[in-house]
Amino acid sequence: LLAEGADILDLGGESSRPGAEPVSTEAELARVLPVLREAVRLGCPISIDTSKPAVMRAVLDLGADIVNDVAALRIPGALEAVAAHPLCGICLMHMRGTPRTMQSDTGYHDVVAEVCAFLRERIEIVQAAGIADGRIVVDPGIGFGKTPAQNFALLERGSELLAVGRPVLAGWSRKATLARLAGVSATPPEERSASQRATLDAASAAAALLAVQGGVRIVRVHNVAVTVAALAVWKAASGQRR
To answer: What is the dihedral of CA 90, 73, 64, 52, to 10 degrees?
Structure first.
């Protein structure tokens, strides 16, 4: 991934896909810590995707640089775990409910306005705990308790997310919304052919490119090489440096 152009590695031991079952703290640590012990030697920022305070404390003690929390530090003890660290970054993501229940709660009056309001509230709470602005990134939570139309509203109205005042991370890669558009949603992810995966990765790169064009600063992707190539074309065409 680093050789293909990744700038940050994001590791996680608990799936947050729609309908995912939770895992115990012990199981998550058993999955993450052996990988993290080696990854911290690679000389790049390491992000850990977790919502558990005990996991946050353990990975930060081992040298992780960023906590990427789909629950935006709302679980008791999570805010304190991050606030106790003097330097680590934090990504605050919008999600309703839990990964197991989130797709049953997609009723919004105005999804973009409500996501922005949530993120502003979480930023204020995190700041009040002593976490500096420069440590905070926000994520609108594409696919986390949103319909396809709501996901694309967040993409189309990206300027409103930027107005929250913190850098924005977007995770479009291989989301169900793109799988439908790519015509591969009928096949379970683990059963998709190489051709189907390539088609979905092309759709993912297109979404990442549109997000960056709209001002997103970080894109979380699976196929790094394809995304880097797409961004290189856009940057060359728009005269921007890498």
So the answer is: -160
